[in-house]
Saccharopine dehydrogenase
Amino acid sequence: MGQPESVLILGGTGQAGARAAAFLRQWHPALPLTIAGRDIGRARRVADELGTATAVTTDLRRGDLGLPADHHYSAVIAALWDNHLNGLRYAQRRGLPYLSISSGLTDIAPEVVAGAHRTGAAPILLASHYCAGTVVLAALHSARPFDRIDNLRIGAVLDDQDTGGPAGRADLQRWSTATSAGMVRRDGVFTWISGPGAQADVRSVDGTVVPAQSIAILDVPSLALATDAPDVRFDFAVGESAGRRRGEPASFEVRIDIEGAGRGGAPLGTSSYLVHPAGQCPLTALGIALGTERLLGLRGDAVAQGIHTPETLLDPAYAVERMTEAGAVFIDVSGVG
């Protein structure tokens, strides 16, 4: 395979985009990267720190993104909300793989329809899951000992001081405006819930119980359809993380509870935490980098055209290996409560 053209990272100056570029540089030192942002000075600083990278300004309101016609790329990565879908259309017109992380469950319909309109175009990876799909992959890795899964529940705590930069905060506001209802799978049926039924508690890794509620998130259908579990729920809490309660920086924490049967049919239940002491950004960036690596064919077989989600392309064991390298910690609390 020859050296690919540069990877265009829209939002490459943001926290997640810049960190994803750093992961790609670490894994593939010779991979050309193009850092795109509204501030050329900031883009150049990120590019200079990476090496083998260039900086450009883009205008997401324009079909050509404001880029010169003679610029060529190997993929388009939207590390921010591609609100006009011009990043996607730019990729489709040029036959380039595309990855997005900010549409969320409530905003993916235009991306899905755009993909259907260009069935012969390159692959689209919809990674608008929590932390760009890393939580789904961690849960699937935890599900390996099960022959049957009856119930899968995710409980996430996002520190209220770790909501990301302006783009990340805008995403949270947009999603909360779109719906206050949560989506669960209950008895095999995808169901919208609200009011008291959507309320829940998430137990933090230090035992503190944080009020939460079920949210509308792509992790629910991804996990339900990947595992065939009839009951799947994702509860989300915003508050003080265990890290800050210890007087340290805001930490990232997700609890994964799975119930079902093991290989021999005996009842089996597991509970574990995925924790990162540096908050949510490293895992979001890692999800972007893993998806980009896969779309480019730098790991695994060539990706077919069409619409994909992280769990359909990425190996959970490999993803967990990368998470651990990036500082994530997995804590087994099965039987603890």
Q: What stands out?
A: The chain has two domains: 6-130+284-317, 134-280+318-332. The chain has a mean pLDDT of 93. The radius of gyration is 20 Å. The chain has twelve helices and 16 strands.
